[in-house]
Design brief:
The chain contains nine helices and no strands. The termini are far apart. The protein has one domain (2-19, 30-162). The protein is an all-alpha fold. Helix 3 (39-51) crosses helix 4, helix 3 (39-51) crosses helix 6 and helix 6 crosses helix 7 (118-134).
């Protein structure tokens, strides 16, 4: 019985932790070591953004996204390319572009060995974005191009569709 209570308390605490955002104001991103030290915070922020419903005016989401963008722009340990996806797939939809960037950061941080392969990062970031958008609870509509990619994903042809 004690074990069950401990497990339940642990699960509740883990869930509460996953849905909170750090105080980004105290995180310095000025020098290369700062970006390395901030990787766990960037991962926490990206996880938060990809596991909570989209709300354009939610301050925690805005702060998290702002932090991720700042971290991605300055980190010397990772390189992110998104111009092709921004132009061809997301077509000026800043909400989707922000989540795509978050998905790229999350994949890179969780898969350090394969984070150097831009095609792999793109494929997995698009997959995460599609999964997020396909869930109606997340309040984010897909563009026509994303719908086509979702169909390709269902057929197992997403990678070919992105090339």
């Amino acid at each position: 019985m004690k074990k069950i209570v401990i497990i339940i308390i642990t699960l509740i605490n883990c869930n509460a932790f996953a849905q909170t955002v750090p105080n980004f104001d105290i995180v310095k991103l000025e020098h290369a070591p700062d970006y390395k030290a901030a990787e766990p915070i960037a991962l926490q922020a990206s996880t938060y953004l990809l596991t909570t419903p989209f709300e354009k005016s939610n301050k925690d989401r805005l702060k998290s996204l702002s932090f991720i963008i700042k971290w991605m722009s300055g980190t010397p340990n990772y390189s992110f390319t998104m111009q092709e996806v921004a132009d061809k797939i997301l077509k000026g939809n800043n909400d989707l572009l922000g989540l795509y960037m978050v998905a790229m950061a999350k994949y890179a941080l969780e898969n350090k060995a394969s984070s150097k392969d831009p095609k792999l990062v793109k494929l997995n970031a698009i997959t995460s974005l599609l999964t997020y958008c396909e869930n109606p609870v997340n309040n984010l509509r897909m563009t026509k191009q994303l719908k086509k990619l979702a169909e390709a994903k269902e057929k197992g042809q997403l990678e070919q569709s992105l090339n």
